[in-house]
Amino acid sequence: MKPMPDETLEKLLYFRQEIDKIFQEFFDQKTGREGKEGGAFEIPVDIFERDDEFVIVAELPGIRREDFTLSALRDVLILEGTKAKDGTEGRASFLCAEREFGAFRRIVEVPAAGDMSRVEATFSEGVLTIRLPKIRERRGRKIQITVG
């Protein structure tokens, strides 16, 4: 376990990552996956905010577009798929094997101010970029109500 950082925001992010790990381990056990040995691996993502949108960037090296799906359920994006082995393992004796293959699943909670009805995604050169426009008016529109 990593040492806890000093800054307040860093502590919150650290805490969030640790909670995410606990949930991931729990769900991996429920689905019968056994971490790296069982073929499941973590997809690295960056999530950042701009004035008018949230952007999620996921690295998917060596994965073809047809080998993954991206879906949304309420305020959660689900990225899942499979990275196929390249066939070298039967023909070679490895001195070092660090690349990961097999099933992957990444769940990303969407910020509350994101407009899921207008989400856009592009995939180029192994990088998936998801753009989530911000809801322009979070409080809604003022409507006059006639009282009888």
Could you explain how this protein is built, in words?
The chain has one helix at 8-31; strands spanning 45-49, 53-59, 68-73, 76-83, 102-109, 120-124, 127-133. It is elongated, with a radius of gyration of 20 Å. The model is unreliable at 30-39 (pLDDT under 50). The strands form two sheets. It has a four-stranded antiparallel sheet, with no helix packed on it. The chain has 148 residues and is α+β, with helices and mostly antiparallel strands. The N and C termini lie far apart (64 Å).
Key structural traits:
148 residues, alpha+beta, Immunoglobulin-like, 2 domains, 3-stranded antiparallel beta sheet, 7 strands, 31% strand, elongated
* Spatial arrangement of strands, main beta sheet: 1-2-7-6
Strand % is: 25-35%
Task: Indicate how many domains the architecture comprises.
Answer: 2
Total helices: the number is 1
Query: What is the helix fraction of residues, given as a range?
Result: 10-25%
What are the secondary-structure elements, in order, as H or E?
Answer: HEEEEEEE
As for the CATH topology of the largest domain, it is Immunoglobulin-like
Stretches where pLDDT falls below 50 for ≥5 residues? 30-39
Q: Describe the main β-sheet briefly.
A: 4 strands, antiparallel
Rg, alpha carbons: 20 Å
Entry summary:
By secondary structure, this protein is an alpha+beta fold. It is built from one helix and seven strands.
Map the helices and strands.
Blueprint: H1 8-31, E1 45-49, E2 53-59, E3 68-73, E4 76-83, E5 102-109, E6 120-124, E7 127-133
Antiparallel strand pairs: 1-2, 2-7, 3-4, 4-5, 6-7
